Amino acid sequence: MKVISSENLLGEVISMLNAKALANAVTIVTAGLFVVCWLLAALLPNFLFQMGQSWFHMMRLDPTELDGAMTFGRFGLGLIGMAVVTWVVTYLTVTLYNKWSEN
Q: SS3 for 17?
């Protein structure tokens, strides 16, 4: 990843991140994890509930029901939605980081 450097008023070197490159990279990783999660939900739904139970301590997930078949339409909508949100959040985070690291 290309790191941009600049100097502040005191002559200290400040590293700045390339917002688009990092947003793209994080989005690709998140999309990959989304695909893995989708496959787990389709192939091993009970395992997915057990994993969720272990992550959300003391919250009961067993009353939760699956509301239908895993379709490619739902998969595509979820993947696109997750990718857009991930890209925007990462881009804004890096932009704020670069702005605040200048001061």
A: strand
| Nearest CA among 94, 17, 14 for reference residue 5 | 14
The contacts of residue 62 (CB under 8 Å, 6+ apart) are 49, 53
Domain ranges of the chain: 20-98
pLDDT tens digits along 85-103: 999 999 999 999 988 887 6
End-to-end CA distance of the chain: 23
Residue 83 contacts residue 26 (beta carbons within 8 Å): no
Residue 92 amino acid letter: L
At residue 70, the 3 state secondary structure works out as coil
Which tokens hold the place of 4?
Answer: 């941009």
